[in-house]
Amino acid sequence: MSLDIDSHIRHSTRHIGRSVPRREDRGPLTGRGRYVADIKIVGMLEVVLVRSIEAHARIVSIDTSEALAVEGVQAVFTAADLADVKTFPDYIPYIGPVKQRPLAEDRVRYVGAPYAAVVAVDRYIAEDAAALVAAGTTYEPLPTVADLDQALAPGAPTLHDHWESNYSFDVATHKPEVDHAFEQADHTFSETYVSQRQTGLPMETRGVVADITDGTLTVWSSTQSPHMVRSTVALMLGMPEPQVRVVHPTIGGGFGTKTHIYPEDIVVPWIARRLDQPARWIEDRMENLVASVHAREQRHDVEVAYDDDGTIRGVRCASMLDMGSGEIFMPGTAPVFVTNACITGGYDFPNMQARTIGVVTNKTPAGAYRGFGIPEGAFVMERIIDRVARLTGTDRVELRRRMLVRPGQTPYVMHGGGRLDSGSHTESFERALEMAQPALERARARYAGDPDVRVGVGFSNYVEPTSPSYHLTTGHWGGGDAATVRVDPDGSVRVAAGLSAIGQGAETTAAQLAADALGVSPENVTVVLGDTERAPYGLGSWGSRGAMMLTGSVLLASERLMDKARAIAAHMLEAAEADIVLTDGAFHVAGSDQPSVSWAEVGTAAWIRYVDLPDGMEPGLETSGYFHPENLQHQLDDTGKINAAASWSNGAHIGVVSVRVSTGEVRIEDYVVVHDCGTVINPALVEGQVHGGVAQGIAGAMYEHFQYDPDTANPRFASFMDYLVPTCAEVPRMEVDHFESPAPEQPLGVKGCGEGGTVGPPAVVAGAVSDALSEWGVDLTECPVTPVAVRAAIRSAGAAGAGAAGAGS
Amino acid sequence: MTIREPTSEVDVEISINGRRHRHRVPARLLLSDYIRDTVGLTGTHLGCEHGYCGACTVIVDGDAVRSCLMLAAQVDGAEVRTVEDLAPAGSDSLSPMQQAFHDNHALQCGFCTAGFLMTLESVDPGDWTGRERIVELLSGNLCRCTGYQNIVDAVTEAWSAYHGSGGSNDG
Question: Which of A253, A284, A733 sits opposite B49 (nearest CB)?
Answer without folding.
Answer: A284
